[in-house]
Amino acid sequence: MKKEDLQAQVQQLNEQGHSIREIAKITGISKSSVGRMVKEIQDSGPGTAPGTRPATVLGSHGTSAGTASAAVPAAGRDASGTLESIKKGADASAEQPRQQENSVFEALLRGQYKYSLHSSYQDFLYSTRTFLTNNLGSEELAHSLIKSRQQRVGDFILRARNICSNCQVRYEKLFMAYVLGELHYFLGQQPELEQTERGLKLKAGVVLEQFIKQVEPMDIFTHMEDDLPTFPDTEAW
């Protein structure tokens, strides 16, 4: 019988639980020869062809770091967390790109929210300035329109506050909050009207127009500071 076939038979009998004495009796070879074969089989590790040497693993600098069977953790170590930690590491590596993707998506949404709010804010101020400084009809109609405009300011404040919750900023600390708050207060006073050649016009309308023109181009997300533009004082009219 060839040596390879004999080694295979010894390996099979060893895996079946036979002792070295029993294997020697079955195969007809000496106990010392069986012992050497069994040791060689055990040293080669599971899954290695009988009679072959285990692969040598090179370290980081090309030096021998032991055999492949020693470098790879045995499956039995899973109970101590070896394989589980590898799985957790793989899951964490897969999760990181997803988190980065979500962060980019959220940042994009916040940018869209901010752009939309900024554009509608400027349009709103422009239409309000035009409305308040243009000639109106009767005084009763004018005050009715001013009251309607005040409601629109209030609605805009609520909408801006909701949108800013997605912008990750505190609405109350924004420059926009100051401007709309002052405008809301101004319209709530039912400002006086004056007669002109073409009809009724807001008293101190020029001052109001200058104020809105001054704040229109400013970034609505600028935080409030001490040197804010002063809103017209209604008591001085």
UniProtKB/TrEMBL annotation:
<feature type="compositionally biased region" description="Low complexity">
    <location>
        <begin position="59"/>
        <end position="76"/>
    </location>
</feature>
<dbReference type="InterPro" id="IPR006120">
    <property type="entry name" value="Resolvase_HTH_dom"/>
</dbReference>
<feature type="region of interest" description="Disordered">
    <location>
        <begin position="40"/>
        <end position="77"/>
    </location>
</feature>
<feature type="domain" description="Resolvase HTH">
    <location>
        <begin position="6"/>
        <end position="34"/>
    </location>
</feature>
<dbReference type="Pfam" id="PF02796">
    <property type="entry name" value="HTH_7"/>
</dbReference>
<protein>
    <submittedName>
        <fullName>Helix-turn-helix domain-containing protein</fullName>
    </submittedName>
</protein>
